[in-house]
Specification:
The complex is a heterodimer of chains A (about 110) and B (about 120). Chain A is mostly beta strands. Chain A contains no helices and 12 strands. In chain A, the strands form 3 sheets. In chain A, strands 2, 5, 6, 10, 11 and 12 form a 6-stranded mixed β-sheet that branches. Chain A has a 4-stranded antiparallel β-sheet with strand order 3-9-8-7, with no helix packed on it. The radius of gyration of chain A is 13 Å and the shape is globular. Helices cover about 0% and strands about 55% of the residues of chain B. Chain B has no helices and 11 strands. In chain B, the strands form 2 sheets. In chain B, strands 2, 4, 5, 6, 9, 10 and 11 form a 7-stranded mixed β-sheet that branches. A 4-stranded antiparallel β-sheet of chain B has the order 1-3-8-7, with no helix packed on it. In chain B, strand 5 and strand 6 form a beta hairpin. Chain B is globular, with a radius of gyration of 14 Å. The chains are: A mainly beta (about 110), B mainly beta (about 120). At the A-B interface, strand 5, strand 6, strand 10 and strand 11 of A face strand 4, strand 5, strand 9 and strand 10 of B.
């Protein structure tokens, strides 16, 4: 079955540091890939997505590129802010329909001033 | 103008009780979902409904019974609650067209269920 593997957290950074959160996946066919963010006490919000190989999703300074050859979708940001502190989830939706998401275990990001 | 809403936000109850969580979306979507988030933040699909029809049931105990009275609502009823049911339950919705690939899911704020 489908699966998503993310780096374990927490990831602790100082403000303005560079962020990478690794994500790799296993799926048949050509899944769509997503990053969702969960701020403390809130639901999940879509951060960015990519639907085919070599697509780059970007939003709020975050980027991720769909790499089919390495089955990866790593999340990056050049300069993190304290307000980026949250849990980040990598997820995929396969072609079997209905967009059901398979999530990674989440990576907590803590940014200090 | 909340897109996906859930009630209640918090639910504390005793083992053995029966409880319900309600979900409503005003986005006009045709597909709704229930996810369970455990204490380690792991999220797993429980159910998915498309146009009021159950399409996914992921090995969830039959104590959990979803009900979709119309496309905008998907409620979750849980019988005989157990300690292990304590979690945060998220409702979500999306519009799934032919092929169903790549469409964003919108999540509700979650319901934190605590079973004592």
């Amino acid at each position: 079955g489908d699966s998503v593997t993310q780096m374990e957290g927490p990831v602790t950074l100082s403000e303005e540091a560079f962020l990478t959160i690794n994500c790799t996946y296993t799926a048949t066919g050509y899944p769509s890939l997503f990053w969702y963010v969960q701020y403390p006490g809130e639901g999940l919000q879509l951060l960015l997505k990519a639907t085919k190989a070599d697509d780059k999703g970007s939003n709020k300074g975050f980027e991720a590129t769909y790499r089919k050859e390495t089955t990866s979708f790593h999340l990056e940001k050049g300069s993190v802010q304290v307000s980026d502190s949250a849990v980040y989830f990598c997820a995929l939706s396969d072609e079997s329909g209905y967009s059901t998401l398979t999530f990674g275990k989440g990576t907590m990001l803590l940014v200090s001033p | 103008d909340t897109a996906v809403s859930q009630t209640p936000k918090y639910l504390v109850t005793q083992m053995g009780n029966d409880k319900s969580i309600k979900c409503e979306q005003n986005l006009g979507h045709d597909t709704m979902y229930w996810y369970k988030q455990d204490s380690k933040k792991f999220l797993k699909i429980m159910f998915s409904y498309n146009n009021k029809e159950l399409i996914i049931n992921e090995t969830v105990p039959n104590r959990f019974s979803p009900k979709s009275p119309d496309k905008a609502h998907l409620n979750l009823h849980i019988n005989s609650l157990e300690l292990g049911d304590s979690a945060v339950y998220f409702c979500a919705s999306s519009q799934v067209l032919s092929g169903g690939v790549g469409y964003e899911q919108f999540f509700g704020p979650g319901t934190r269920l605590t079973v004592l």
